[in-house]
Each structure stands twice: as C-alpha cells, then as structure tokens.
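Design job #97: recover the sequence.
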C-alpha cells in the first residue's frame, strides 16, 4: 500500500472531504459565503476522487461541509468512501440538527465509523445567538441518536469563545458523564488575519481548572497556542472540488482538471508534496470562509 510524504517528511494519510458548502445553520464564526451549489461534487466525482486519494496513501476520510447531512445522497457517499480499497475509516462532522435516530442508523449501516457533533452553546438562547438557526434540543438529541446507532465514541466539538461560552465549560463536560461521549474544546482560529477578541487559550482555561489536565474525556485543540503543523497529516477537498493543502494557506489545485489527466495520481502526489510547512503565517487572510473549506 502506498504512503504519501510531503516535502517536509510528514505522512499525509487523512483527507477532510467537504461534500457541500450548504448549511442549515449560520454560525457567527463561520463566515461561510453563499453556496455555489451548481459546482458541488457528483457521486461519480466523489468515487473517482476517493479512489485517487486512496491510491496515493489516504487511509482516513472525514466528511465535512457546510452541513454534510444536507446532502440527500450522504449515505451513498459514505458507502463509496468506506468501500474504496485502502480507506480504513470514515468519520463525519455535523451540527447534529438532522441526526434523527433513523438517520443515525442509516449512516451507520452505510459504513460510517464515527461522528463529531458541533455544539457551541448549552442554553437555547446562547445556542441561537451563535448558530443563528436550528435548535439546541435537536443538536443534543443527535448525540443520543448517534450513541443508539453505535457510532460511539461521540465527540462534541465546541469552539471556545471568550465571554460567550467559556463560562459553560463544566456544563459541556457534564455531557460526557456516564456515557461514551468526549468534548473537544477548539481554540478560535484567526481566519481573518487579526486575532479575534473572542479568542481564549486552552492554557487559560486549564489554569483556571487544573483538574482538567487529567480529565480523560476532554481534549483541547490548540491550533493557535500550540500549532501542530509539524505533525500535520491532512489535506482537504473543498465542496467545489479544489485540493486545499492547508487550512491556513490559500494554495489550491483544481481536482476536476487533474481527474481529466492519465497521470492524475502523479499530479496529485506532486501537488500534495507542496503542502506548506505551516499555516496561518503572518498576515494570512483566508480566501474562503470556514464553511467553504470544510473546517
Ligand atoms: S495550519 Fe495547515 S499545516 Fe498547520 S495543522 Fe492546520 S492544516 Fe496542518
């Protein structure tokens, strides 16, 4: 089986595949531009892309968006990914709103291994203030539906925001009590070049709660305070079929163009080899909202 290294010796084996830039929420920090739905990838394109990435060494795929569950063919997409030779794990990041018990079972039966559910507020008002649509009740019931469908462990993704939800840390952690659920607190990323006043570091949160250090159901994603670019193993495909090598760098390649070539695999390897050593370099301003990249 092939293994893909970039020019800095990092093994690239993880693909974040954005299957749509449509979403049923409008989270304040997402800055998602309106969907260019006419350019979304077809099932046939997703099949070809998955095979190509598996051929060069990708082993794990995470389906993202926008909101992946807004695609009515999401089960076919999961089935395609999971039944592509070389792909060992298929995961998804969703806001949970459309994750009914029936849907969770369908996703599981199609081959989905794991799910992360994004929830940033734990009272209905705060939830609405951040998500600007949807309902907290629906998102929370998505957790139960996923557990019942056997998609455990469930990870809850929470973007930490100063003065918004940093006072609810204990309530988020209480969601993990007595069930196979974990919370991932994610540092707010400066996609717009300037540090956001909402930013609060993991260190500040942990210093205020030393007991958190040993809590086995809590993770911190410290992309700002402790960037993990040296160990980065991922690349992204955007909903309009562009290969994006790094979240914090605007370098992209047209995959539709690549798919037309006989030496597509070689072109893909050459492109991935150019993955930047690190992202969010000084003054970086993204050319896409988070929801148009797939997070
Ligand atoms: S900023 Fe880029 S290189 Fe760094 S961890 Fe994120 S995707 Fe990887």
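Job complete. Output follows.
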């Amino acid at each position: 089986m092939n293994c893909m290294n970039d020019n800095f010796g990092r093994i690239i084996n993880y693909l974040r595949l954005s299957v749509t830039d449509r979403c049923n929420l409008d989270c304040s920090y997402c800055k998602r531009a309106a969907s260019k739905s006419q350019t979304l990838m077809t099932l046939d394109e997703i099949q070809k892309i998955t095979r190509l990435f598996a051929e060069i060494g990708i082993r794990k795929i995470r389906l993202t968006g926008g909101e992946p569950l807004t695609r009515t063919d999401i089960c076919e997409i999961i089935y395609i990914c999971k039944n592509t030779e070389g792909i060992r794990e298929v995961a998804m990041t969703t806001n949970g709103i459309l994750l009914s018990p029936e849907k969770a079972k369908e996703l599981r039966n199609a081959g989905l291994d794991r799910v992360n559910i994004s929830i940033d507020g734990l009272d209905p008002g705060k939830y609405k203030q951040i998500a600007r649509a949807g309902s907290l009740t629906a998102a929370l019931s998505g957790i139960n539906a996923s557990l019942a469908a056997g998609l455990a462990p469930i990870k809850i993704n929470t973007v930490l925001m100063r003065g918004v939800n940093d006072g609810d840390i204990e309530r988020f952690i209480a969601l993990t009590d007595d069930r196979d659920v974990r919370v991932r607190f994610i540092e707010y990323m400066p996609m717009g070049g300037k540090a956001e006043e909402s930013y609060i570091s993991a260190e500040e949160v942990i210093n205020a709660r030393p007991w958190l250090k040993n809590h086995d159901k809590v993770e911190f994603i410290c992309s700002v305070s402790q960037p993990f670019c040296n160990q980065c193993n991922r690349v992204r495909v955007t909903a309009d079929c562009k290969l994006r090598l790094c979240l914090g760098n605007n370098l992209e390649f047209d995959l539709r163009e690549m798919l037309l070539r006989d030496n597509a695999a070689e072109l893909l390897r050459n492109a991935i080899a150019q993955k930047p050593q690190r992202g969010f370099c000084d003054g970086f301003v993204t050319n896409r909202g988070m929801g148009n990249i797939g997070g």
